[in-house]
Design a protein that fits this description.
Layout: H1 7-17, H2 22-29, H3 33-40, H4 53-56, H5 61-69, H6 101-111, H7 117-124, H8 128-135, H9 150-153, H10 158-172, H11 179-216, H12 223-228
Length: 229
Amino acid sequence: MTQPLMPHATASWLVDNTALTFEQIAQFCGLHILEVQAIADDTAATKLTGRDPLRSGELTQEEIDKGQDDPSYKLQIQKAPDQAMRTKGPRYTPVSKRQDKPDGVSWLIRNHPELSDGQIGRLIGTTRTTIQAIRERSHWNIANIQPKDPVTLGLTSQRELDAAVAKAAKAAGAQPNPQDGRIDEDRAALIVELRAEREAAAREAEAALAAEDAGASGGEPSADDVFRS
């Protein structure tokens, strides 16, 4: 069933302004009846500001009257809430990743100089002012900015990056950035290095475990064995 745009706020308004049962309100708003009880008792974590479903067109007074006259009546939403539309603007980036943006910009500037500030801004979701400051090394945090692959950071996708690079190269009448091959080589080398480190750590762990087993099965006597003898 379609629910109102702001279920908890709508429930708060219905509790305060109608004689509908908690069950009717819970069913209409898609909430548990205990949530409606908490709203009515003001025990919810935050006091909600009610949202009038009559003004939004989600309910009519006639529909509310039907519900008040018959406690078993299930309210029917009259108008589905308008869907939120994504407007043009910078790419949305989760708060947890926003501190990584300058690192991603720095990486793109270093490895893909053919990209314009506008393309970098669309890929990373940042402003031209920030990009220019990083280019000119006048950014307030420039000392701590480390170039990092924005794909690895989760700021953009490999497909979007490849498309932007190809478009920039085509516009410049040049072949794709020759550094791309070196980047792939660097990634492959890093994978090999990490695998070698992991294998070495595994061997060390096995050796340590073997030494412990040897000691337990008759190696050097322990302090307890010395005192007992």
